[in-house]
Amino acid sequence: MIKELIKRRRRQVLVHSYIYYELNDNIISDKQWSAWAEELENLQKQYPEESAEVELYDEFKGFDHSTGANLNYPDWVHSKALQLIRYHYEK
User: With 90 as the cut, is the pLDDT of residue 74 above it?
Assistant: First the structure.
């Protein structure tokens, strides 16, 4: 359960940071992003061993919930971000 939540939060923070910083768009509120980022930071501190076993560990080493501007984006993030933007604007 904890590992799955860490994975989900990492992916959410990563994709929505990409949308904001790289695509100059925003489909969630800053408040929502901050809540996810703060929760992720706390989870990684509370469960360091579990955190180390979850994908995207290297991208989120030392993650500070204050910004997503300095994250490194794996190749899949671009296509996922575009998919979410299309879905958001088609609704």
Answer: yes
